[in-house]
Amino acid sequence: MNLTVTPGAQQRLETLVGERATSPDQAIRLFAQAGGCACSGPRFGMGLDEAGDGDAVVKVGGLTFLIDAASATALEGASIDYVEGVMQTGFSIDAPNAQSGDGACGCGGH
Q1: d(CA 9, CA 21)
Q2: CA distances for 58 relative to 49, 50, 63, 71, 92, angstroms
Q3: Is the pLDDT assigned to residue 108 strictly greater than 80?
Q4: Alpha-carbon span 24 to 95, nearest angstrom
Q5: Of the four listed, 20, 43, 86, 103, which is most buried by Cβ atoms within 10 Å?
Q6: CA nearest 44: which of 6, 97, 2?
Q7: What's the half-sphere exposure (Cβ side, CA atoms, 13 Å) at 38?
Q8: Per-residue H/E/C for 77-91
Q9: Tens digit of pLDDT for each residue in 69-87?
Q10: All domains of the chain, ordered by start, with CATH?
């Protein structure tokens, strides 16, 4: 699995793992889940977890990522960045292989 982490994201993730990991077996779980609107495609998230059956274990620099089979296709070739700005501060995940919705854009309205 191909995953890219920018230097800024790498540094921030290393800090967070060091501060929050409660076990040396924990790694960063990276996942995709259904989006809120039909055209938005999946949303992405991260958290600390231990490897489970079927997880891909991806090492990037000094970081270890866990990716479940259901998320793997959407996250193939993804890039993780850490952005600090006036309008947004946090991690940004760009996943070019993530499928957008079925083309019926809208959030609850017809």
Answers
A1: 17
A2: 14, 13, 8, 13, 18
A3: no
A4: 28
A5: 43
A6: 97
A7: 9
A8: CEEEEEEECCCCEEE
A9: 999 999 999 999 999 999 9
A10: 3-94 (2.60.300.12)
